[in-house]
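for the writeup, i need someone to sanity check this before i put it in the appendix. the sequnce is what the collaborator sent (i think, or maybe the updated version? ugh). structure was predicted straight from it, no edits. if anything looks off just tell me and ill rerun, i have time this weekend
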Amino acid sequence: MASSRRLVSAATSNVLADGFAASITTLRPASGHERAELIRDVIDAFRRLRNSIERFDRMLAQGGGAQSVQAAQAGASLQPLLAALSRRGGLARFTRQRELKRAIRDARRLDKTRDALFSDVLSLDTEALRRTVGELDRLDASFVGLGVEHVLEQHANALAATNAASAANAGHTSRNEAATAIAAALVREPAA
């Protein structure tokens, strides 16, 4: 923390006759570059999370025939998107409701962090920024995983339904063929 308090001068100042500096010098913490990178990583992680939630919402909306929530600005709150996703998950009979609700709850909690990102408390604490990036990435992976599992389950259900329909049609066709053969045999051999 002491190194972040140390200030680095960007230029030397020339003192005029009246005692004022002739040039303006910028002072910034020595860890400014690392902080800037971490803040960029947090912003990128929020953007990836927002994109994953929007894709998940669109996927559930297409399956249910509903309209998805319009894409909002990248800096906007996730709350409306999460509320829509929560409703849609219930309507789509999403099988892993417990995991989806937990991911939505965690996303709501982290969305509040977005508002505090530029406060001195969070932006000066590089370890907190690293933890936030890790949590956002974990949550993003959770939403992507839930979405992929849902798609695979939908395809497996559709394939099973198609196979069942094919088997039923094949059984129905076999019964029709058997009935036709019996009727033909009865026509050829009159009853005694």
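The first helix runs from residue 2 to 5. Residues 31-188 form one domain.
thx in advance!!
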